[in-house]
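Sample 3 of the quickstart, ligand malonyl-coenzyme A:
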Amino acid sequence: MNLYDLFAIAALRSPAKPALRLPAAPGLGAEPAAAAIDWSYGELLARAGAVAAALRRRGIGHGDRVACLLGNGPELVLLHLALLRLGAVLVPINLAYRQREIGHILTDAAPRLLVAAAAQRPLIDEVLAANHLSGLEAVVGAEELAGWSAGEAAAAAGGAPGGDDLAVLLYTSGTTGASKGAMISHNNVLATVTGLLAAWSWRSDDVLLLALPLFHVHGLIVGLDCALAAGATVELRRRFEAAAVAGELAGGKATMFFGVPTLYVRLVEELRRRDGTAADLPSVRLCCSGSAPLAPETFAAFRELTGQTILERYGMTETGMILSNPYSGPRLPGQVGTPLPGVSVRLVDEAGRDLAAGAEGELLVRGANVCDGYWRAPEKTAASFVHDGAGRRWFRTGDLARQDPRTGAYTLLGRRHELIISGGFNIYPREVEETLLAFPGVREAAVVGRPHPEWGEVPVAYLVAEPGLDQPALLAFCKGQLAGFKVPSELRLIDALPRNALGKLQKHLLP
Ligand code: MLC
Ligand code: AMP
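Result:
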């Protein structure tokens, strides 16, 4: 079984069923206007087949990487499906990334094509000028790809992709400063999708309102892929806008909505701004949250305002979804639930010994959902897995958790690494520190996460600097080098960084 076949089954079963809808968009800056989309399963699959044919004519085949710098829109959906059909690999890039971050991914993944929105062209020219990307044959405009989709679908050619073939290469922030590509196979996605389809009782008459970016696992796999596998309808939005989403949830069509906690914080603000009284979401049967910790206050406020009890779940790029609160049964704030079907987890101490329920330890995970490792990075892969006494391989999540001895549900308690999560996007302090240190006059830098009511956490930088450091210039430098969400929200100058007797930095002592 491959992922494309799973979607094709939905199309064969009900070709006329609505698959993908998107409202029209007015042109904005370099971005051309876009017509509304309302494609049935039959039309979506036919268009994806035509894109696959066009890609094949360009020589794209099994195992080839195709990167994209695309916002939410039909092009990204078509590209994803077409590559699945060819056994080729999608490499989606976060639209907030700057030249240096994109250059790293393109150099590492070595795609043959890059598909990009018109507005990204100047940035791509910068990337091309700064990097020697010898394997990159062409940059394809989103509108060109859209044009391909109106062509003839290819007759099936070559062998169908197998379950172990790569489906997507998802870049995730690295502890070493550079992001690394998690190699997600068709089987990995199928495991997450089938687990969620069962756990959340997906139905073919579900309508998912999807405003999360499709370049991450949450929007792409938990959202789009699950919906298409269920034969449901995706109401895709180009971006999240609280007022529009609140209106649509109340409008009586959507049955499901997925968000990172920041989306729920903004929805709560929006609903309170409206009239502060309860908002009926008549058609909605499930609101899920994940990617970052959902504050109990947000959970409670959303329930109070809408009557909806958010279902919180936990996952990772490398593993897909791991734990989920129950669809039927109590969903408790601060808990992320129990393992999804087919997923095994363990809690271990620093020495790798298994811990009993009630004790705090690192969460390890195993199952068909877990990726094989990182692209062309055997050392990073080896460091991310441990073997048990029976020789089985477990992925180290780096997340600390505790299991409730009574219910078996897990609570996340923090992280072994210094990962900061802002609005659902990951920031590794090391990458920001390296950027700060590259600026003249910065002698030492330490970046830590500080709680923030809307974003969850934001990065704050502590600096030891030569007198007269030009702080606005330093921030401008960071903005040029880093995605906006990684730029420190504050610079704090101090005389010395706190270190222990061995000279090791003690970030927890920073004021
Ligand atoms: C945008 N900005 C952010 C930010 N997103 N700042 C901090 N954290 C963020 N996440 C800043 C920009 O840099 C910019 O700043 C300003 O906000 C406006 O940018 P924007 O793009 O217009 O913002 P907006 O559209 O409001 O985006 C906010 C958001 C978005 C919450 C809708 O961040 C988002 O879609 N987050 C979801 C991320 C996600 O899907 N994560 C899943 C990862 S998968 P300035 O200064 O330039 O004006 C995963 C595994 C799992 O974690 O379990 O799911
Ligand atoms: P990413 O690398 O972007 O896939 O992010 C994965 C990380 O997001 C996990 O290791 C967790 O730290 C965090 N995460 C995901 N879901 C949750 C959740 N429900 N609560 C807290 N943290 C979460």
